[in-house]
Amino acid sequence: MNSTVKIKSAIVVALLLSLTGCNGRQGNEKIISVTIEPQRYFAERIGGDKFTIHTVVPAGQSPETYDPAPQQMIRVSKSLAYLQIGYIGFEQAWMQNIRENNPEMKIFDLSEGIELIHGTDEADGADDHRDHHHAGIDPHIWSSIRGAKTIARNTLSAFLALDKEHTPYYRQNYNRLMEEIDETGAELAKWTSLLSNRTFIIYHPALTYFAKEFNLTQLCIEMDGKEPSPAQLKGLVETAKEHQTKVVFIQQEFDRKNAELIAKETGCRLVTINPLAYNWSEEMIHIGKSLAGDE
Ligand SMILES: [Zn+2]
Which of 69, 182, 266, 276 is the most buried (most CB within 10 A)? Predict the structure, then answer.
């Protein structure tokens, strides 16, 4: 969406907010806004029935490019707080607008304390399919065990800051969630330890932190957020053959054409994954099992 349209829709939102007098919170519904569904998973695990978690980027939409509808921005403005995932495209584009329109709202950055992966600028032939976010920070922090634990810890701190009264309740939920994350980690360690081949292909580079954590190599089809050129596709097929890659991951919000072509050319299995799925641990285990050929 170009900037004029963005400004227009921001003005519409501001207007609607002032008309509906939504700058002040109403009723006793305690709303917390988050950007993506996995955040809602962690927040609901810790917050239980104390908060209503509102996800701005709906399932099936790309959080790199999504622009919110006015009614979503109204729901954001009714929120006590906003939990940012950190560096994702949607937040880069809209957080300033959200901050300006809701000066009282508390904003927490859940990526705080995470060892961020920065893309590199030095593309050198076959390797330019790795580490995709040239010169940028890879925002996909939630698709790793370390990332999930940091997000959970920061979510707990946010809830304690917002609602000290229920500290024991949140802490108990948090401890249970940390156990669940550890169990997921153990499952993933089991599945990835079985792998004879540690390279996988993926359309959009959503598993950079996962790959680093489990000592895997992620080769990306998408280049700088765009479809690859025929030459880049050819290069990727060669690299995949060199590495005897077995799996091509494709996310539901992206075009399957090139992934299907590469799978055919390299004899890889084509597996649909959804790193933006609500049920974080189920999806992570699906990814681990798929790599090991068990799904
Ligand atoms: Zn992404």
Answer: 276
pLDDT in tens, 154-188: 999 999 999 999 999 999 999 999 999 999 999 99
Calculate how far, in angstroms, residue 251's C-alpha sits from the geometric centre of ligand 1.
Answer: 10
The DSSP element (H or E) to which 162 belongs, if any, is helix 145-162
Ligand 1 mean position to 87 CA, how many Å? Answer: 10
Q: What is the DSSP letter of 34?
A: E
Output the CA 107–ligand 1 centroid distance in Å.
Answer: 22
Q: How far is the CA of 19 from the centre of ligand 1 (A)?
A: 35
Q: How many angstroms separate the alpha carbon of residue 273 from the centre of ligand 1?
A: 13
- The pLDDT tens digits for 181-234 are 999 999 999 999 989 899 999 999 999 999 999 999 999 998 878 889 999 999
State which CATH number among 3.30.70.120, 3.40.50.1980, 1.10.10.10, 3.40.120.10 fits the domain covering 3-117+138-180. Answer: 3.40.50.1980
Please tell me the CATH code under which domain 194-291 is placed.
3.40.50.1980
Q: Are the C-beta atoms of residues 207 and 249 closer than 8 Å to each other?
A: yes
